[in-house]
Design brief:
The structure is a single chain. This protein is an all-beta fold. It is built from no helices and eleven strands. A hairpin with a 6-residue loop joins strand 4 (about 35-40) and strand 5.
Length: about 130
């Protein structure tokens, strides 16, 4: 199994940028599909972005497309979410997630219940 730990959250003004990191320990990080989800107060956890094992393909929620960039470094067992042009509605706890699922089958990369491994989350607050 793999353990995940996020960092990099904080308070930023609207229009600003933040970079979140996810450090993985345990089994080889390259074995896992990786994603970021977020959960705002009173709302369900929602998909933000995902990246394939080799990093060649990325997937984004419509609400963040063009503003967020997901990446990973398997040699360092890290994942990253670069966020720019932040909006107050981006305020949430951001979670790193990983799973051995395969998008070539019925596995849904944008569904919370598909991921077995989660970090503890990092708070992102965007002020208006």
């Amino acid at each position: 199994q793999v353990q995940l730990e996020e960092s990099g959250g904080g308070l930023v003004h609207a229009g600003g940028s933040l970079s979140l990191s996810c450090v993985a320990t345990g089994r080889a990080f390259a074995m896992y599909f990786m994603a970021w989800f977020r959960q705002a107060p009173g709302k369900e956890r929602e998909f933000v972005a995902a990246i394939t094992r080799n990093g060649r393909n990325q997937y984004y929620a419509e609400s963040v497309k063009g503003r967020f960039t997901i990446s990973r470094n398997n040699a360092e067992s890290t994942g990253n979410l670069q966020m720019s042009s932040l909006k107050p509605e981006d305020t949430a706890v951001y979670y790193c997630a990983a799973d051995t699922g395969d998008i070539s089958g019925a596995w849904q990369y944008d569904e919370v219940q598909e991921y077995d491994y989660w970090g503890q989350g990092t708070q992102v607050t965007v002020s208006s």
